[in-house]
Amino acid sequence: MCLGIVVTDAARFGTLVPACARPCHPNNDSVRIDKSGLEVVDDDECFALAKTAQIGRVVYSDRALPVIVPVNFVLDGGDVVIRTQRRSRLATHAAGNVVAFEVDEIDATTNTGWSVVFTGMLELVDDAFEVRRLEGLGLHSWAPSAHDRYLRLRPELVTGRRIVCAQPGHAEQGVSRRAAPTS
Q1: Of 12, 34, 9, 19, whose CA–CA distance to 112 is shortest?
Q2: Dihedrals φ, ψ of 71, to 5°?
């Protein structure tokens, strides 16, 4: 089981939280660990985790330079669907190219979290019937301007990693980062 630091003065150190909520890496052959000590997440769980998120990041190349754009999205079966502006760099430069789409959830208090990356060709959806179908998914951009284009990523590569708990040896495990009172 994970070891966390026990703090007896909650008023001084803030709210206590466990270093992790489950064993670090149980002696279980079904849990795969990568060379960095992170749990490898299978494809089905990657999609299940991605469904819990609202914001992801599209990574693509524009004029030989990397670009990362935060977007809200929806999963449509096994596809990632994004809504953007007609003249956005995402619509004009990324569509038709291989991109990566990353989504994650990190808890800095418990030093836990997960990250999922979908990689594949990003395509502009221009079929009128398909656009109407995608409009029914309820994907609304958070940005104030009109978003009249749908982009779809059909992942050919799905990878996921999970930090299941803080590693022993970190002095701040299990303690919130609230400053101590001065009195």
Answers
A1: 19
A2: -145, 155
